[in-house]
Amino acid sequence: MQNDHFGAQLSDLSEDLIRFDSVISAFATSLGLALHQLEIDHISVRCNQNTTAERWKQGFSAIGNCFSEKTINGRPICLFRLATPITLAGQSISVVELPWPGTTLYRHEGWEHIEIVLRGDVETLNQRAMDLLSDTGLLLPKVAIKCSSPQGEGERLPNPTLAVTNGVITIKFHPWSIEEIVASER
User: Fold this and answer.
1) Is residue 130 left, alpha or beta, with left meaning phi > 0 and alpha meaning psi from -120 to 50?
2) Are 56 and 45 in contact (CB under 8 A)?
3) Residue-number span of the structural domain to which 102 is assigned
4) How many folded domains does the chain comprise?
5) Looking at residues 66-72, what average pLDDT do you find?
C-alpha cells in the first residue's frame, strides 16, 4: 500500500487500509465484480464522532487539498484530492470522501466504501450495475441493495446511486465521477 505518506492524524486510517483492501476485494469477488476492470472513482470513510472527523480533516488537508465542502443529507461532507494517491484493489485513487457523523452508528470507524463510475444513461444506471453483479453474490447473507439519488446544493447533474452492502462495507455505483458532480455546481 502506498500509505506511508499518511501523518499521525491518519495513522488509524493508514493501518485500516490494509484490512479494507482485503475485505473490499473479497466482497467484490463474491459479487462477481472484477474491480480492476472498473473505474473506482473515490474511497470513503465513516466515523461516529465529530472529533474524529475533525482530526481526519486536518490529516487529509496535510496530504491533499479539500476541493469541496458542503452539507448533503443534513451533514457536512468534505472531498479531498490527495497529492499521492492511495493504492486500492490495484488502482490509484486520488479522491477521498469524508462525511461527518450522522444518525447511524458504525461498528467500524475507518474505510467503509468505494464508488465506481458506470458511464452511460442515468436512467439505466441501476440495471447496468445489477447486470454486473452475480445472482449468487446477491443471495449471500446480509447483502442488501439500496437505490438513492443524493444531491448537494447547486448540483446540476442527476446522480442516481446503486449501493450494495454487506452491512459493514459498501460498493456504490454512479454515472458520474465526484469531480464531475462538483464541477456541475459552477
Assistant:
1) alpha
2) yes
3) 8-183
4) 1
5) 92
